[in-house]
Specification:
mainly alpha; single chain; 2 strands; about 240 residues; two-stranded antiparallel ribbon
Length: about 240
């Protein structure tokens, strides 16, 4: 059984390396396309370059993670850099679909500040989430498990408290964009953030009370990725063209 597990893990590692190379080539192609066929606006070029740099960082981190027996600290760093890659790629994609030229704020400045505070807190939530995972049963190598030196229950409670504060801020953003937002896009974007947040919270509490089944942990990670996408989309749509809807 152990040999089968090791063989399976080798296939996963090989697939990960292959996809890393593919993503790197796609990132290079995206930069070339932006440089040749667009107006080379900074909002497109910077995130595209960040994706390429992030892929290189991930390749190095991936090697360190394997060499250190899946130490939870390096695994957490690997995950957080991945979230940064998702954010940069989303920013470039959303920007490419928005009108060129100057775009005015479609919300008051105070709402924009609230959006950035909400996004910063989301970063804290993600970091605390990696601490919870690194302190629990799914951290480290299966044969030589490593754990972060935190009490899993206390870490989970702190994570849950930050999530509740985050939910409150997201609700405030939804209300604010509904009341004073001058674009349907920004209202829809932050409603989607709330939807993903509620789904993520439901999965998080379910996995806590069901002793962290692996399938729910995977869903939780997928929803975390979706949350990053939703937040970046919400931030990008704070500027645009207002409408009457």
């Amino acid at each position: 059984m152990r040999e089968q597990a090791e063989g399976f893990h080798k296939y996963i590692e090989f697939g990960n390396r292959t996809l890393t190379g593919l993503v790197g080539f796609v990132a290079i192609a995206a930069i070339l396309a932006i440089w040749q066929w667009t107006d080379r606006r900074r909002a497109l070029v910077v995130p595209a370059v960040l994706v390429l740099v992030g892929v290189a960082v991930q390749a190095i981190l991936g090697g360190i993670t394997v060499r250190t027996g899946l130490n939870p600290a390096t695994v957490a760093a690997h995950f957080l850099v991945s979230m940064g890659l998702v954010a940069a790629a989303t920013a470039a994609f959303v920007e490419s679909r928005m009108p060129r030229g100057h775009r005015a704020l479609v919300v008051p400045p105070i709402v924009r500040h609230l959006a950035w505070v909400t996004t910063a807190l989301a970063g804290v939530v993600l970091v605390l989430g990696t601490i919870v995972t690194g302190s629990g049963p799914h951290s480290g190598d299966a044969d030589e498990p490593a754990r972060l030196s935190f009490d899993p229950r206390s870490a989970s409670w702190l994570h849950a408290d930050s999530v509740m504060l985050f939910v409150g801020l997201v609700v405030a953003m939804v209300v604010a964009t509904h009341l004073v937002g001058r674009s349907a896009h920004v209202r829809d974007a932050w409603r989607f953030v709330l939807l993903v947040t509620l789904a993520q919270g439901a999965v998080g509490y379910t996995q806590y009370f069901t002793k962290l089944p692996e399938a729910l942990v995977l869903i939780h990670m997928l929803l975390a990725t979706m949350l990053v996408v939703a937040l970046v989309n919400g931030l990008k749509h704070l500027r645009g063209q207002g409408d009457a809807r």
